[in-house]
Design a protein that fits this description.
146 residues; five-stranded antiparallel sheet; 3% helix; elongated; 1 helix; five-stranded mixed sheet; Jelly Rolls; mainly beta
């Protein structure tokens, strides 16, 4: 199993707000291979500050599942650096089975952290035969304190 980590992402700032209350959006794209699509494999997309309040999450994937049985299922998770505190933002998405976009629900958990945390994608259920492609994650957030 090989885990992927992405270090760079373009950042966009809201033209309507400034400072810590400004909403920020990042889109991060990773190239994945079949080796990255085994059960429990993780793809690390972003590291956010402890005071970040996540408002939207979108998972975009190419078709990564060749045969469809069992269906490739992906979770989007927020997890602190120690790995002891995690919250699921999007559970069991089958967006990688045929490709497409999945959005986290309207009831995202409020993440209260004392330390920076990661937004990652984990393979919840592996497909019998995965294939290479791209996985993109769009995360929008603002900072709750300055």
């Amino acid at each position: 199993m090989s885990n992927l980590t992405h270090q760079y992402a373009a950042m966009q700032h809201s033209p309507f707000l400034s400072g810590h209350a400004a909403k920020t959006a990042r889109t991060v794209e990773l190239d994945v291979t079949a080796d990255n699509l085994v059960a429990d494999a993780r793809m690390y997309f972003l590291r956010l500050p402890a005071d970040a309040v996540v408002t939207d999450v979108y998972l975009i994937a190419d078709e990564l599942d060749v045969d469809g049985t069992p269906a490739l299922l992906l979770d989007v998770i927020a997890e602190d650096e120690s790995g002891s505190n995690s919250e699921t933002l999007l559970a069991n998405s089958d967006v990688g089975q045929a490709g497409g976009v999945a959005a986290a629900g309207a009831n995202l958990p409020v993440l209260t952290r004392d330390e920076d945390f990661y937004i990652l994608v984990e393979v919840a259920t592996a497909a019998d035969e995965g294939t290479e492609g791209k996985v993109r994650l769009v995360v929008e957030w603002f900072r709750s304190r300055g």
